[in-house]
User: Fold this.
Amino acid sequence: MKCPFCSEPDTQVIDTRENEEGDTVRRRRRCLACDKRFTTYERIELRMPLIVKKNGNRTEYDREKLQASLMLALRKRPVTAESVDAAIQRIEERLLASGEREVPTGKVGELVMRELRRLDKIAYVRFASVYRNFEDVEEFREAVREVKKPRAQRSRTS
Assistant:
């Protein structure tokens, strides 16, 4: 690890600690040339798949964009920030678990709708009306019927 003060490549690890979750390692280091100390962190870097838009363009996965979409659907709804963060985490885990290098926006949208259905029925219908581009009242009614179905009945039809 190169020293941030003098750029010397020789440094010594003085102390190593893991955080409580076990996903980050903190290291205290000392430069052997200038004797200054600094801290480094090691984290697991997971590559999220590229998102393939309907027009074929590819874009980097953007957690903030996903969060903004969820927050827009959940605007003025009684859902905690922790619940939203947990939903985003579940979506990201599913994307990573797919093992795909590229994922169509449709798959991301379906994952978002699944999470919104769990979080808040009104937010689900809001998101679905935009995502599925409802063109008439009957499509809206169908979305409402979908969230009214008992969970066991939904899983049999899905």
User: Anything to note?
Assistant: Residues 50-157 form one domain.
